[in-house]
Every structure is written in C-alpha cells, then in structure tokens.
Design brief:
With 1335 residues, this protein is an alpha+beta fold. It is built from 21 helices and 62 strands. The termini are far apart. Keywords: Chromosome, DNA-binding, Nucleus, Telomere. It holds the Pfam family CTC1.
C-alpha cells in the first residue's frame, strides 16, 4: 500500500484515506482470471480505478470523490442489508428529482435510498472462482471478488465485458436470502450504467472478420439446403435477431437458441456450448449481430430440421442497432411506458384508452364483446411498458401500465425475476396477445412462451415489496408442467392457491401443501381432457418451427391433458426427450374462457344467501288463496316462517364450496367451516342410488372437501303485526326478522381434497379388503356405513349443574388406548388429525388408547339448553345432553395404536355376554350427535388410558324380587372417539335378543294400524309447516343464537303435515315443540323425515295426530331438490268416487279429486268481520261495544255448503271464501259489488228450506232475493271438478256406517219408502274448476 500511496503524495489527508480504502478494496477484489492468467496486483487495480474515476468525473480535475467509499463484493453483501442505489455522476438535486418522479409514478412505493459506494469487482459468467475454461458456466452474469459473488444484470450488456475487472459507478443492489442451491449467492446487482474496465484482457476480444468471410442469412439457407456438404466447414453469419428464446436447463444441460433474419429468410442458431451461454443477455431482438465459427447440425427430433450450432471458437460481435420490429414488419415505437403498435385479432383494432382496453370492430363500429367460451385468432406482438403491480410473483403474474396483464409462467424467466418489481421498464417481443382469456385476469393479457423474449429496458428505482420471487420449485409452475395446463386453467389454479391459503392456512392446511390441495381441486372441478402422446409439449418445435405452436394456442376447449415429464424440482422445463411423437401443427388460435365456477368462502356464501333470502321474499306469495279473507290472528302466523332454497347448479355462475367438515357440539348438524366462518349442513347418504338416509360415517369429520352439487336453504323468521293483507307493503308492521342459512348435500357428491386420518385409514382398509378403489374420488361411496339390526336408543333431555366449557379441541392420533364396539351409537367429536394428509396433525402425545365393541339401537333428540357462554360456567344450570341405548359386544381391548376403522377382529366380539347399555352424552360429547344413526356399528375408543374399567359398565345389584328395568349407563367422556365400521370391515354379528324393538312405520300404518302403540316411529314427506303461537320463553344458547334477531327461533311450536311416501293423500299432523332444544335445520316442505318416538294421540273428532315428547327424535333424510317457495307442497291427488270414498273413508285417501254435480246449496253466508276481534264489521266500524273495539279494518268472509252427487254417492262440501265466487259463477266486478252491499248490512245468510232459499233477515231485501234466486239456478247447480279433503280423517268401516245410519222417508209418486241412510260424506273444497273430462 505504501508504494501505491507514494504516487499521490500531493493529495490531502482525506484523499489519502480514500486511496487507502481503494487499495484495500482492490486487494480483496483481485481474484484469479477465468483464462488461467495470473491475478493482477492490488496496486495495478487501484491505479486503474483512479484512472477510471478521473475519466468519469473530469479528466482535468484530480480531485477524488470524497463523499464516496470503495467496497468489494464481500463488504457490500455483509454490510448492506437494505436495498440501495449508487450514482457517482449524480448530484443530490438530480437524485431527489429522480426519486420524486419514481414515487409519483407509483404512489404506494418508496424510492431506493442512496448509498455513496463505489464497487470494484470481477465480471464473469463462472459460478466458481477456480480458473478454468468452461467450468461452472450457466449463463448468469456475476460480480466476484476473492470470496463471494453476486448475480448481476445490465440493460445493454456486451460480450467483451466478461472476464474483466470493472469499476461500477452506477448500480442498484437488492439483498436476498441465500438459495438452497448456492449459499454463496447473496443479493442481486442491477447495472444502471456501463461499467468501466480497469485492466483489459486481450484474450476476451473477438477477432475481426473480413467482409468476404461473412455471409448473409439467405446464403446460409442455400448451404442448409445442400444434400452433400464438406465436413468441418465453419460459417460466419450476419443478420438481425428476430427471435430470442430463453435459457433452458434440461436434464442438467443448459442451452438457448435465437433466429437471425434477413428479409424473408430466417435461420435458427442453437447455443449448446456452456462458454457462450452468456450471449443470451447480450442479444436483443431487432439488433444486427455477426456470429462466427458456426457449424451445421440436424435435429433428429424435428425430422432432420437443420440449424446452426455455436462452437467453442465462435465469437459474437454486435453491428449497428436496428429499430425493433414486430412480426408484421411494423416498426415498434413509443416512449417509456407506452405500448408498441399491436395487431390484434382478425379485423379488430386494439385501442388504448386511459383507463380501459376496448376492442372494436371497424366494420360495425360497435363495441364487440367475445363470448366466454370460444376460440379466437392469436397474434404475437411486441410490447414495451412499465411494470406497475406484482399480482403473484411466485406464479409469474404481473401487471403492466395499470391495465395489461403479464404471465411469465410458460417461460423460465427466473434469471431476471429479481428485477421485476414495480417501476421496471420491460420490453417483450413475440408475446401472445390474449383478449379476455379468463375472468380472473385483466381483459388484455400478454403471455410469454418459449419463443418470446423479455428484456429489462430500464431498472426500477423503487424498493421491492415483501412478495417472494418465483423459483424453479414454485408449486404452481410445477403443476403447470406436470399437467400441461392451458392459460385459463393455470389462472384458475393460481386463484385457487391464493384462496385456499387465505381460508385454511395455518389452521387446517400447511402452507407447503396448498398447491397439492389446489391441484386436486382443479382435477375435480375441471373436466377431463384426452390423454395421449399428441399432447406432449415439443420445446424444439415451439421455439424453432413455423407456424408457431405452443400450449397457449391449443384449439381444444377441454380442460386437462398430460404429457411425459420427468423433472427434477430445480429445472423449469424437464420434459421427456421423446419428442418424436408430435401432433400436427395447430393453427394460431387460443381458447377463451375459464371455469364458470365461483370459489366462494363460507362467509361470502352466508352474506350472499342472506341477501338473496330477503330479496326473494314476497309476503303476498306466502299466503294461501284465502289470504285476503284472513283476520290478523290468522294472517300473521302464516307469515312468521317461510323458506327459500337455491340449488347451486341453477345459478349463472355455480359456486364451489371448499371447507372442513366438523361438529362442535352446538347443534344437531355438521358444519362446513373455513377460517371465514361455518355453515350448518344437512348431509344424507344414498343406500341404493335411489333411497337416502342420514349420513352416519364419522370418518367424514376432519376431511377437507369440495362440493359443487348442493342446495342452499334459507329459512326466514318474522315477527309481524299486519292488520290485514292490504297492509303487506308497509314494512313498519315487521317488528323483527332473522334468517338461518344452511346447505344440503349427499355425501356421494363430496370430493375429498385432503382426508382425515380416519378417512385415510378407511380408504386404505377398504382397498385392502377389495371393496374400495385407491382413488379418493370414491371415498363417498366407500365410506358408506352398512346396516345391522337394532334394539332401541333414546336421547333424553337432561339437565346438569353448572359446567365449564373448554374451547380447546384435543386431537388423539397414533396413541395407545382401549376400544369397545357398539351397535348404532350417536354423535361425532372433534375432527381427526391427518397424519399423512394435508391437514395439520395438531398435538400428538404418546399416551394409550383402549377400544371396545358395542352396537347401538336407536337415537333421540338433543335435549336441554344452556344460557352460559362458551368457555365459562353455565349459569342457568341447563346443558346439552342426550343418551343412546346400544348393544355392546365383547370386552374392552387394548391397542398400541389408535385402531380407528381397523377391520373388526374376532377377539373384540368375544368374552362378555352381549347386553344393552345406555351411553350418556353430555356437553362437549354431544358433538357426536349428527352422525350417529340407527342400524350402524361403531367403535368407541378411550385414549390415554390402560384401565379397561373405564369402558366397563357395572351391573346394578338386585334386591330381593325387585328387577331393574332400565339398562346400565356409561358416561361418554369428551376425549373419547367414535368410529364407524362399514360392513366390509366386519364379519356378520350374532343375532342378539332385544328387550325393545324399533319399528319404523308408514303414515298409513300410524293412522289405521290397530297395533299402533302410544309411542310410534314413522317416516314421511313434509307437505306443510305452520308456526303456532308461542306459549313461553325458554332461555337459548348464546353461541347458537348470538346474532341479532336469532331469538325468534326460540319457543317455537310447529305443526307439520306429513304425507305418506307410498300412498298419496294419506297425511298426519305432527305437533313439534322446539323450545328448549337446538334448532333442527331441514324441516321444510318437501323434505323427507324420520320421526322417532312420537306420541300417537286421537282427538275428540276421532282424528289421529302425533306430538313430540322429550325423547322424540327428528332426522332429516332428504331435502327437496326444487324450491317451492311456500310453506306447503302440493302432492299428487288421485281421482275417487264418492260412493267408494264414503265406504272406505280416510283409508282410501284424505284428499281426492271428485267430478260431481251440485244438486243444491244448503246454505250461503257472507259477512264482514273485524280483523282484530272477529265480530261483525258494519259500516266501517266494529259492532262490539263491551269492551269497545276501535278497529277500523274489516275482512270479508264467505262460506257455502253444497250437496253434490257423482252417481255413486253424495257428499256435502264446504266451500270457503275465495272459491264462493267461482261457485256462484260471478265475475270480478259482480263479486266486488256484492261485497260492498254486504258491508252495509254486515251479515247476510240464506239457507235451504225445502225447495226454496230463505233468510232470517229481511226477506224482501234485494240482495237476499238475488242470492236466493242465484243459488237455485242452473248457474250454480252444474257439474264441477272438485279437489276435496275429508273433514274427519278417522278410519271408517262398513259396519260403523251401518251403526251410524238413520231412518229416512222417501216418497215416489204414491208410495213411501223408509230406509237407513248413512250420513253423507263431509269434505272441504280445496280447489274448484269447471267440469272437464279427466285424462
């Protein structure tokens, strides 16, 4: 150093200090050269650096830049931990103006801070520091010193810069974490100005060629067309670069190619020599170059296609720069941030607006919007713009100029992604112009392929964001290669990955497994493509052959295809080299559109459906035809409840739900949950493809599933006080409203994205047993639970003392314990951990588990509610609980690992005598309620214990002759697990005598069965639902009804009309008390239900009905597939003769169609009644005086009773208000006039007396005379088609009719007849229409 400083004795102390730093920096930067030449001394480098600084600043001024410091690469990497920039020739004012302009262009970003540093280093393309001719060349440029190196990139790189010691006056430095492949590479260097060479290496200068040795591209074409040529010939070619392909790494071998063009002639040049891979950064489209020492080669994979190959003696020299051109030959112009001229699709002109891209058709002059599913002509264009936003750096998605999308996924542009941050100016050539290729991207999308070239025209002056950069191991890019996805598929995959990460990480899915889940979701959602060799991607044809062919130009509208790919994770394109199987060239078209599916979150689904619930509400549509004639007390109960169902497949953009199935013990149903929320589910499973039953497989809990075919049900609860139907438009009469949203689906429609541990074990066990496929798509059918015989199970309402609710969910997987098998138990607990799946496994501790075998009989309803909050004590002393009577088999068995759904062993059913046991489920244990059904076999597992006594049920001692009639009980602990055992995993169980047998009857058997007991179980179809008046207020559970308006669900008394599934017309009324229990979703008209242990009652009129008791259980087995929109469902009605109907009564049917003749009107009554109290309403006021009624609203009502005869018998028909006008044959105007006349009188009644109609009022009243004459005229006495319902639905026999018959006298001419006549059939008219022949 002293000898170096002696040369600058005339400098001041500050400059000498700076020169000393320069010498130390040069000493650290003096590394061996790549050509095995000796490294220069530190003094030589330092002197060269001083000369270079003087040339840059001012050759006449010997002053050194005292405000700067010299650094080596090692010092820069170790000391500079934040992004920075350095500009030697800039003043402070220039830097501030540059930073202000950069921040104004993109306001949400900050400019790079300035660091006054001068960097000295060795510019090379070698990865290692050992001097060797070609060792470690990978095409990446680096700045190196003795110990470290950083990657770099220049805007206008020259090949003669390499292997030189350089002074870098202007650069940007972006620190990065070291990669796994190269721990020495830290950070990224952007050379914003050409570096200054310090010591020229003569060996790196390319020899000049004479003009006679250089040939044009057209001459090269002639040489390539020769059949015979001399070996060893080397060509020196000059041309303009028209195509520049990216650098590829295939099977550990790197190469790239480019095309030289001269007029209409074009030739491809293949660069395989590792020493010339650095040319890829030096070549630019539109620039004239001269390449020497090229040899002619043939590509066997392209049927002998001839190309030029670079040799180790080849050199590259740049000529004068030509303007950049597009494929059509137009010159590409435009300032920074402006788009180059682009030719768009067939007859369309692309215009750039300030805010939007618009595609117009010049012929029509109107905006043209392409269809979402079609093929369109593609153009390859050039574009220059500014990157304004990083959409998804890991997936290679960016935004240019605020409105144009850019996709880099189809090209390995990984060497420059560190420079792709907001503010960078890029120039793209031969890029695909796609318009509205998908709804998940901007209207204009530029996609690069292996033929495209992407170059940084100006580095960004802004700091990078926190987004990660894409790498060769990016999951989305790996899936793109494995499945060879189209652009729409890839964009949808990226959208799925982003969405799944937001909704399930880290609670359910590990971040590293999101791509696997998204790939499975893509396979389930998108239809299959044809597979075969024609869909393999041929990289050579894509880069070199005309016409151009790549995955972005496929015409097929299908979604999935495969190709042969054996790739290491590192390389971007690791295709099979079996490219001889190639499809014919495809036309330049691309497929437009994306999956017409919407990946909704649970929260978005709930919000959307709640809005749809109230938008679809029409109060008038909820009323029956008699709505205008109802009083306040009759009207408002009909409006208090309604529902609206919406099948997912009926919407314009069907939603796809992804979530985890769970049961948290707060209700009677499962839930589909993500991190945004949870929605209740009514799940059923198919038994034989046609019949359904409630889902019973506990292995579904914890599974991450997707579902497309489901129905969203929205139940509305209203508190209203409408005086009459005329006030339905006044919302002030609605005092409270609430909406409950849940979904209904069949488990066979679920697609497993990540199975729970139980489901994975079940699929594996079924596959070994030969009853299940290896694919997870069959999990729904494979997981179906078989049926065994049952005895009886009861879920009784229980009350407990104050208890504490623990919000944590303990997961027990891979543990030891005890197990016992039970027949048909009830409930499901916390979700399984997913060893081997994508779901997080949770806590895993080593204690033991014990299973035991038992078999359940039957299940009953949840009972009890708690007013305490979750995690705290229950203040009201009420808690959820139920109990189940099961048949227990064998003794508890010790297992070293959790048996889950391990096939049933003989030792589990041997030992103790089979006996009935009551399983008690309390508080958190009630989470098993939704999936525990009758006729199923389960394994009960007790973890963390080796004591068999925990699963042993003590027998109660008997005293003397006293016998214990109740079964012994076992309290199920919250940490115990229940696993469903399907028939394929167990041998046939022995028949065991039962004390009680569950018999499921039909509605007809309940109505007319002579052996029907007090408690009955039956199944049927809900035809109508009516909310009755509330009797008392019962405290509800805050966690279930915590939202505003949810308390309208409490204290509900519901009347269900249930119809027979086999015999139309047979119905029974069921009175269900929902107060004090969790709300049961799915009780809507059209749903099929299983009602267990309901009390059968007989009314005073001998009508049979059922009502719920504390042990009653309601199970929904199927929901309607269509939306009826009302609280009633119309069932098919059969035709019936009155004579047969009178003999058989309700046994025949409760509702029937009759074609009969009206013989006479027995009476007709019309009146106006007060809407509030029901008294006569006369002359706009109520006549009630004690107490006085101040109501001013009246309701018109009419009723008629007629006698009809169809030739086989007669009947008396009651006709209500809305059908009286049809009976009388009056038009709308006439009917309104009669109502006005009756309103003056208040009440009018005429009745039959002999052959005449008389009235108790004024017989001379014109209205009475008119109605009397009308009732006996042929206008009324005419044939009609009637739909009638029996007023008395008690069973009727011939003997009973003879007993109730009365003597009647008939006169025929001179003779009198006396005979016994049964009472005529009494029916109510439901529908009246003019007579017409039946089909």
């Amino acid at each position: 150093m002293d000898s170096f400083l002696k040369q600058f004795r005339d400098r001041n102390q500050a400059e000498l200090r700076l020169l000393g730093e320069l010498y130390q920096c040069a000493e650290a930067s003096a590394c061996p050269r790549a050509n095995c030449a000796a490294a220069p001394s530190a003094g030589q480098l330092a002197l060269a650096a001083v000369r270079g600084l003087q040339e840059l600043l001012d050759s006449q001024s010997p002053v050194m830049p005292l405000g700067y410091s010299f650094v080596s690469v090692s010092e820069l990497v170790s000391r500079q931990n934040i992004p920075c920039c350095s500009h030697l020739t800039w003043s402070t004012h220039q830097y501030r103006e540059w930073a202000r302009e950069a921040e104004q262009r993109l306001p949400n970003h900050k400019a790079l801070p300035r660091a006054n540093l001068l960097l000295i280093g060795y510019l090379t393309d070698r990865k290692c520091a050992e001097p060797s001719a070609t060792s470690g060349c990978d095409g990446t440029w680096r700045v190196r010193d003795r110990s470290l190196s950083v990657c770099c990139k220049a805007v206008s790189a020259q090949p003669n810069w390499l292997q030189q010691f350089m002074l870098f006056p202007s650069w940007n430095y972006i620190p990065q974490n070291p990669s796994a492949q190269n721990q020495q590479t830290r950070g990224f260097l952007e050379l914003t100005a050409p570096p200054v060479p310090l010591i020229l290496d003569v060996a790196s200068v390319a020899p000049e060629r004479s003009c006679s040795e250089v040939i044009t591209v057209a001459d090269v074409i002639k040489v390539l067309q020769q059949r015979r040529r001399k070996g060893g010939v080397r060509l020196h070619v000059h041309g303009v670069v028209s195509v520049l392909c990216p650098l590829l790494d295939i099977a550990g071998k790197s190469f790239f190619c480019f095309c030289l063009k001269d007029g209409e002639s074009s030739v491809a040049v293949l660069v395989l020599d590792v020493g010339h891979l650095c040319w890829q950064q030096c070549l630019r489209v539109g620039e004239g170059v001269c390449v020497s020492e090229l040899r002619v080669c043939e590509l066997r994979t392209l049927e002998g296609h001839k190309v030029l190959c670079v040799t180790s003696q080849s050199h590259l020299s740049t000529a004068h720069v030509y303007p950049a051109v597009t494929e059509s030959g137009k010159e590409a112009t435009g300032a920074e941030g402006k788009a180059m001229e682009m030719e768009a699709e067939s007859g369309m002109e692309v215009k750039r607006d300030v805010k939007h891209w618009r595609v117009t058709n010049p012929d029509s002059g109107e905006n043209w919007a392409p269809a979402t599913a079609r093929t369109k002509i593609s153009k390859m264009i050039s574009y220059k713009g500014v990157l304004t936003k990083v959409l998804d750096a890991e997936s290679g998605l960016f935004e240019l100029d605020g409105q144009v999308g850019l996709c880099l996924a189809y090209q390995p542009s990984l060497g420059m992604v560190s420079s792709l941050r907001p503010g960078v100016q890029i120039e793209i050539h031969n890029v695909h112009f796609l318009y509205r290729a998908s709804s998940l991207c901007p209207d204009v999308l530029l996609c690069v392929c292996l033929r495209s070239s992407l170059r940084v025209a100006g580095f960004s002056g802004l700091q990078p964001g926190g987004a990660s950069h894409p790498s060769a191991e990016a999951p989305a890019l790996r899936i793109l290669l494995e499945k060879n996805l189209g652009i729409s598929e890839y964009l949808w995959l990226c959208h799925c990955m982003k969405t799944l990460k937001e909704r399930f990480c880290p609670h359910w899915v590990r971040e590293q497994r999101v791509a696997v889940v998204a790939s499975r979701l893509l396979d389930h959602v998108l239809p299959l493509r044809q597979e075969g060799p024609n869909h393999r991607r041929d990289i050579y044809r894509e880069m070199l052959v005309e016409p151009h062919c790549c995955p972005l130009l496929e015409v097929t509208m299908n979604w999935r295809h495969s190709f042969s790919c054996k790739c290491s994770v590192r390389c971007f394109l690791r295709y099979s080299f079996d490219v001889g199987l190639i499809s014919p060239p495809l036309p330049p078209q691309y497929s437009v559109g994306s999956p017409h599916l919407e990946l909704l979150s649970v929260k978005d689904l709930l919000l959307t459906m709640e809005g749809e619930c109230w938008q679809s509400l029409s109060l008038a549509s909820l009323l029956p035809p008699s709505g205008p004639h109802l009083m306040r007390a009759q009207l408002n109960p009909l409006l208090s409840w309604s529902f609206h169902s919406l099948p997912a497949w009926s919407t314009p953009k069907p939603p796809v739900l992804v979530g985890v199935l769970e049961s948290r013990g707060k209700g009677v149903s499962m839930r589909l949950a993500d991190q945004t929320g949870a929605v209740d589910c009514v799940a059923v499973e198919s038994e034989d493809g046609q019949s359904f039953r409630a889902a019973s497989n506990t292995a579904w809990l914890g599974c991450l599933v997707s579902i497309q075919r489901f129905t969203t049900v929205m139940e509305r609860f209203l508190k209203t006080d409408f005086p009459s139907w005329r006030h339905l438009d006044d919302e002030h009469h609605v005092t409270r409203r609430h909406c409950r949203v849940y979904i209904h689906f069949c488990v066979s429609d679920l697609q497993i994205l990540s199975p729970s541990a139980s489901m994975a074990a079940l699929l594996s066990a079924q596959q070994k047993a030969g009853n299940g496929g290896p694919e997870e798509e069959g999990a729904a059918e494979d997981g179906r639970v078989g049926r065994t015989e049952v005895t009886m199970a009861q879920k009784a309402v229980g009350g407990g003392g104050p208890r504490t609710r623990d919000s944590e969910q303990t997961r027990h997987e891979g543990l030891q314990g005890l197990a016992v098998t039970v027949g048909n138990s009830c409930g499901v607990g916390p979700t399984d951990a997913t060893g081997g799946s994508e779901l997080d496994a949770g806590d895993r501790s080593p204690p033991p588990k014990i299973p035991r075998l038992a078999k359940e009989h039957d299940d009953a309803e949840h009972g009890g509610r708690s007013s305490g909050t979750e995690g705290g004590a229950v203040t009201s002393g009420r808690s959820l609980c139920f109990h189940v009577t099961v048949m227990m088999f064998g003794e508890p068995q010790f297992w070293a690992e959790n048996p889950r759904v391990h096939p049933l062993e003989a030792s589990e059913t041997a030992g103790l005598e089979h006996r009935e046991v009551d399983l008690q489920f309390v508080e958190r244990s009630v989470c098993w309620f939704p999936l525990l059904q009758v006729d199923c076999l389960y394994r009960l597992v007790a973890p963390h214990t080796q004591d068999p006594g925990v699963l042993c049920v003590p027998s109660a001692p008997s005293k003397g002759s006293a016998a214990l009639h109740s079964a012994p009980y076992l309290l199920v602990q919250p940490q115990w697990r229940v696993y469903t055992l399907p028939p394929c995993l167990r041998p046939p169980l022995p028949q065991v005598p039962r004390t009680k047998e569950l018999v499921v009857m039909s509605v007809s058997q309940v109505l007319y069965g002579s052996s029907a007991s007090t408690l009955v179980s039956f199944q049927g179809l809900i035809t109508s639902r009516i909310t009755l008046e509330e009797n008392e207020k019962v405290p509800c559970f805050p966690e279930e009804h915590g939202e505003t308006g949810a308390d309208v669900e409490t204290s509900l008394n519901v009347k269900l009309t249930v119809g027979d599934l086999a015999i139309p017309g047979q119905i029974i009324h069921v009175y269900l008390k929902l107060s004090g229990r969790p709300y049961i979703p799915g009780l809507v008209p059209g749903a099929r239900v299983l009602l267990q242990y309901f009390q059968r009652c007989v009314s005073r009129t001998d009508s049979v009905y059922c009502r719920s008791v504390p042990i009653s259980c309601v199970t929904v087995t199927a929901l309607p597939q269509t939306d009826c929109g009302t609280s009633t469902v119309t069932l098919p009605v059969s035709a019936v003769l009155l004579g047969e109907w009178a003999l058989e009564g309700a046994r025949r049917c409760a509702v029937g169609r009759v074609r009969a003749h009206v013989t006479c009107v027995l009476y007709l009554q019309m009146q106006w009644v007060c809407s509030l109290c029901g008294n006569i309403f006369k002359q706009d006021r109520c006549v009630q005086k004690y107490p006085p009624c101040t109501s001013t609203i009246g309701v018109f009502q009419a009723e008629a009773k007629v006698a009809v005869d169809d030739g086989s018998g007669e009947a008396q028909v009651w006709i209500s208000s809305q059908m009286v006008s049809g009976l009388l044959g009056l038009g709308v105007t006439e009917w309104e006039g009669i109502q006005r006349l009756v309103k003056v009188r208040g009440h009018v009644r005429v009745y039959s007396q002999g052959r005449n109609m008389v009235s108790n009022g004024d017989a001379e009243d014109p209205l009475v005379e008119y109605l009397s004459s009308l009732c006996v005229s042929t206008v009324v006495c005419r044939p009609l088609n009637l739909t009638c319902q029996l007023k008395k639905q008690s069973p009727c026999t011939v003997e009973l009719r003879h007993e109730t018959a009365e003597l009647k006298r008939f006169c025929r001419r001179e003779r009198e007849f006396v005979t016994k006549m049964a009472d005529p059939l009494q029916v109510s008219c439901l529908e009246l229409s003019p007579w017409q022949a039946w089909e």
